[in-house]
Amino acid sequence: MTKYDIIQVGDDDSTYKIVERKMKEEGISYKFETNLTDLATTLTESSAQLYVIDGMFPRIKGGQIELLVQEAFSLIRKSDPKAKIVLVSSRGDIEELAKKLEISYIEKGSAKAQTAYDLAERLKEMFSN
Known about the structure:
The protein has 129 residues and is α/β, with parallel strands linked by helices.
């Protein structure tokens, strides 16, 4: 089984390529998935010390945008019941969901996580703790 320091799922791979580069510079192993199918496969073959879910991770179904946070959370918890999970989003209602799920939250676009580099620094801090 492959062990990563951080596994992240989301839809904005341009931002996360920057995060990945920063993690590599710091010696932190990082894997990014862009859909639930790939996440599920990764979870059967890998584990992580920290899992990151993009709060705006969507699927379009029947013309409706459906957020996949809950499904990603369930897949991770099923694979690793004690997983350390953080939700990252610019939407305030996603913070409420993080509280409900009893997981950490990082507000994207806030003073502390304004850029992809800032986000990488916050994730590095969370991984280290």
